[in-house]
Amino acid sequence: MAIGDKKFTVAFKSYCRTLNLAIKISRLGAGRYVQEDKVVWACILFTKLCTTSKSLRKLLDHDVSREYKADWDYASAFSLTRNIMECYQTLFYLCFDNVNEDELKARKALFNVHDYYSRKQFFSFLSETYDVQKEDTEIENFVLEQLKNSTFFKNLDEKERVKYLKGKNAFFISREDIEERDGVDKNDFRYWYKLLSTNVHSFPMGFFRMIDGDRGTGVHSDVEEKYSTMALEVAENYLIRGCCNMLNFFPDILEKMSPQEKKLLLIE
């Protein structure tokens, strides 16, 4: 993904235009639950993508023209941007990726297995004497059987099957592979994911030399502005990709878009 050297004001205005279009597409595509399963998931996940993107807009809505200097927080902007990135990856993996129906069912089954064990672990933290109910066992058997009965799952080697049945993995492929399947260079993705993650987790790279680098203090600086601009550009890239793929599901929405809106998505 090519991230240029836009000024903050230019990047923010561009991001807002794209976000407004994404929200329009989300609303026009809402409620179409009579169609195939992956369309339903697309509506849900695209809504989440838009909601998080609105939070990023609110965070970075600085009145630069009036030299508003307070409340800059690039690290939180990076956190939201990574959330947008990961939401889109899930959206692509479950809805847009061109795989056969059996693999798609296996992917959703693995999500159910991961969800079950994640919730089971979560509730076990509330009490050391967490009581496994009969209904829990029935649900566990049900989600495991869904996965086991998939031809795609059966064709995996035994070591992989054992790994996925533990419920610790939500995806059959890595985020890098998801991005590559969507036409993104792996190294480009690695670069941005590493940068965003460093600030999400407060790793040393995120705060070492913070004062020397003139960042992370809550006030305006050239670095804060530059990093905030980068967050907007990365997030907008995922919004555009999401919009284009949603229009493949709902081509009728194109008729309700203006020429200017189509131009945002490079649609003639």
Structure description:
- This protein is mainly α and 268 residues long.
- Helix content is 66%, strand content 0%.
- It contains twelve helices and no strands.
- The protein has helices at residues 8-28, 37-59, 74-96, 101-124, 134-148, 151-154, 158-165, 175-181, 186-200, 204-207, 222-249, 259-264.
- It starts with 7 loop residues before the first helix and ends with a helix.
- The mean pLDDT is 88.
What are the salient characteristics of this protein?
268 residues, mainly alpha, 0% strand, globular
Q: What does the secondary structure layout of this molecule look like, with pairings?
A:
Layout: H1 8-28, H2 37-59, H3 74-96, H4 101-124, H5 134-148, H6 151-154, H7 158-165, H8 175-181, H9 186-200, H10 204-207, H11 222-249, H12 259-264
Helix pairs in contact: 1-2, 1-11, 2-3, 2-11, 3-9, 3-11, 4-5
Whole-number average pLDDT? 88
Strand count, sense and closure of the main sheet? none
Q: Tell me the radius of gyration.
A: 21 Å
Can you tell me the overall shape?
Answer: globular
Number of strands: 0
Distance between the termini: 21 Å
Look at the helices and sheets and give the structural class. Answer: mainly alpha
Determine the strand fraction and express it as a percent band. Answer: under 5%
Estimate percent helicity: 55-70%
Element-by-element helix/strand order: HHHHHHHHHHHH
Name the poorly predicted regions: none
Count of DSSP-assigned helices? 12
